[in-house]
# Entry
Amino acid sequence: MESRKSEERSGSDKSESHTHCPGWLRQTSMIIAAAAVGMTLFCVGIGYFPARGAPGRLAAKWLIPDHLRSDWDWALNEYRELHINNRELATHIELAGIQRRWFFKTEVDELHRQYVLNPVVEDDDDIHWRRPLWEGLSQLVRRSRSNTEAALTVRRKLYERVSLVDQSSDRLLSTWNNRQGNDRDFEKLTVAALRAVGIPARLTNSLAIYYDSEEWLRFPDIDDYVAVLRSRDLATGD
Amino acid sequence: MAGSNHHTQRAAPTFVQSALPYAVFTSVLTFAYLAFWFKRPGNLSVEWLESLRAELVSLCAGQETQWQIALCMGLYFVGFSWLSHSLRGPKPATDRRQILIWLFALLASFSYAWDYPESASRNDYLVLLLALICSQGLHFWRSWVIRRSLHLDLGGAFLASFAIVTGVFALFHPEQSLKFEYREALRWSGVWSTPNVYGILTASAMIVTICRIFDLYQTLKSQGSSSRYRNWISLILWIVGFLITATSLLMSYSRGAWLGAAISLAVLICISYRRQSGIPRGTIPFRAAGLLVSIAVIGFWTLRHTEHQILRRVFTVVNLNDSSWRNRLATVPGAILVTAERPLLGHGWHQAESVYTHVFKPDHVTEGNAVTQNDFLMLAMLLGLPALACWTLWIVLPFVDNNRNRENHGFKITSKSTAIMASCPLLVGLMFDGILFKVATAVPLLCILELTKESQPDRVRTQSES
# Structure
């Protein structure tokens, strides 16, 4: 009986050592874990609310860095009728901000906001193009020395990727994903692609133009511009 | 009995026997660290050294001569392995790790010889062979020490040499043609090729210094007055070493190195707490880990837009806009497809990268060398899946055995446990920074991995048997 009692005692000692944990540690870890989960749910969830009013102002505090806050406030005011949520707008703001800060510095705020940050390309209601185009094109132009060099590189990449057909693809991003579209789709995609890498661009008479050295420039005809790129490649030894 | 005599009567080493390991390890590591510097022309101001460098480089690079160097190096590898095996007695137990490294070396050599003209266009095989020779040499030396029943901790000597040499080299920042920056802050790269290599080596060295400090502290607590003065001096010097390596680690801005160091420290804390307090797994360490993770999550959401360089760099690990880790991830599908083309023997020492770059590289990834940052993928593409399996098992086995044979009475830092923790940053480097085919990292990597396995004394030959 004594041996059984000692076995039971050692068994209960073992179970206590298995479960022993200071109370303060248990409570602190639970509180902090709850705060972490709550904060994550809030920061992720706020992104799915529409970018206007109180959700928009709350999102500014948690989703946007300080130096881009003015762009965010401008976009909230400018696009309050647009069906865009906080997360999508934050993507536009952040990626445009990265390209402006580190690669293609557009000095004039208005120029940057209207022709780089602007998620609307002409009458196309597709506004989800920024991230796919940025991921697909930004690295190609990291070392470009001017807006023109980057614009030509982007244009060449689009020529390689997209086949020109008669039928229009309904949405801008469909032209990129499906790799085909008509002339107008191609020009709209060019404008979006240039904006994605941080170069001001717009459509004029259904043609894409871009901004460099205080003027708006057209793309040369395809034969001319292949020759321009070829001579540049020969000069740099690429 | 011979076995009990072996365990109880260990001879004290002579001064030369004690000092020689430090001298050899320091020399080998110095050579390994300076290899990158020597490889580039114009870095040596002395003329005869520069011409020697040019000769060595042309010998290694030339198709007519490289096979001779490879053959000589192969003989060293075979020699060390055979000598280690012969020291283990007439009927040694199966050493699975040795079998695995032999298979791996065999597959690598077969691939090298099979398509020699292509293989000889690069030095990757020679670098790998050099590192294997160093690890086998260390293995042989440890076996010899056990055979001679010497009271000599070769593992400790190597790790101490590694920490000291790395700490010293971390202080030098010669002018390099390529500067690395993070948001206009200069990233230190020292005498090595990239800040990531710099970070990984200093992280491993830092872990060794921490283990040494921990060990000396415990020794000072338990010891009497004799040799306390010497131990205090050692402790202060190791603390200085820790400060140097920790600063170097921070200034490298290498996230892989930071991650490896964090893993090592977490392992050290968990094991020491569990073994000292006797509390089994599943209680306090997990609570503490959960608490740390929660704090990190809260820190991420509140500080991810901070302008503080180091904090921002930490949180870019989960930043969707950071292209470096995204590029590394983007290489995985293409590398798997390349491996699937030739899964058994791989594409050989030169073909794999060009196959990936020209056929399987995603459009948006401009640089094809992102795939070279993952050594596991590279081994799979170069040598095939069997070689990768041998290599992976060779790394993993000591960790599995260590977990299985865990003893729960007090915590003492041994060379083996230090090596396990110091290998964590290097293993992270294998996955994200392509350190296997660089001399500066391959040599310490394989030597430290060699030390993760306890050098088992086999039955010692008695005089009648010999």
